Amino acid sequence: MHEITVLSGKGGTGKTSITAALAAVAKDVVLCDSDVDAADLHLLLKPEIKETHNFESSWLAKIHKDKCTLCNICVDHCRYGAIHEMKDGSLEINPFQCEGCRLCERVCPEEAISSSRNNNNYWYVSDTRLGKMVHAKMGAGEENSGKLVTKVREAAKNIAKENNTPVVLIDGPPGIGCPVISALTGTQTVLMVIEPTKSGLHDAARLFELIKSFNAKVYASINKFDINIETTGEIEDWLNENSIPLLAKIPFDTQMVEAMINEKTIIEYNPDSMISKAIKNIWDKINQN
Fold it and tell me: How does pLDDT run across 74-119, given as a tens digit for each residue?
């Protein structure tokens, strides 16, 4: 089984649109949206959810006022300043400041504090017109997104094995944080999508430094290359310096926007467009190596 992960050093590069288009070219893949903090692949593919699973996130502490004697020991020990005195004199834990360390629970002499796992996160197995898809939804401010990325990737790989699907195509998170590390671990191939801006080049360089820690083949594409020819040239020079194959320079075309408005990939909307030809070329080159 071949895992291909599409990444970008920053958001807004067109990573998800290109991932969906690659799936339309491939036709025989399991899709995995591992951008669990801000998943959006479902907006384009309109999945029909077949399975819903709960994912437990971090711990959240709660003070039981009927047991609390207001000794303030928990307040003194909370290094995050999450425990506050209310107008009525009682103590309450702010769920957005609580880091789930459970120290307050352990130091409370009255056993007036208990902790429970957050259940505000879900992952799904769905059918789409382009094949099976595993995706997720995290509640606002929730933690452990890296662990949720691992969960959806494992589920996608299991589905691929069960159905003898040769490729798992992963829409990765932007940036270089823990979710990206989880999306990278064990993947065989990475496609970096780079936009022709100074920040796009800077963040691609940071991403490549991270990728080098993993045993994966790295390729690149420059999206909307013709909106800034000068910076595109700088990116090409940087790719050459780092021996990163450039698989395609994708032009700017309003048809990409029109395709999204019509809830289609560019491959479905106009298979003969310059963008479609460039994306087909990406897929062919990745699978030749």
Answer: 999 999 999 999 999 999 999 888 888 999 999 999 999 999 877 7
CA–CA distance from 232 to each of 13, 170, 200, 227, 282 (Å)?
Answer: 14, 25, 10, 9, 18
What domains appear along the chain, each with residue ranges and CATH number? 2-56+120-288 (3.40.50.300), 60-117 (3.30.70.20)
What is this structure's pTM?
0.83
Q: What angle do CA 98, 54, 186 make, to 5 degrees?
A: 90
The answer to whether 49 and 38 have CB atoms below 8 angstroms apart is no
CB 252 within 8 A of CB 261: no
Q: What is the DSSP letter of 285?
A: H
Closest listed residue to residue 193, CA positions, set 286, 269, 264? 286
Give backbone dihedrals phi and psi of 286, rounded to 5 degrees, phi first: -60, -40
Any idea what DSSP says for residue 46? Answer: -
| 33: amino acid identity, one letter | D
Q: What is the pLDDT of residue 39?
A: 85
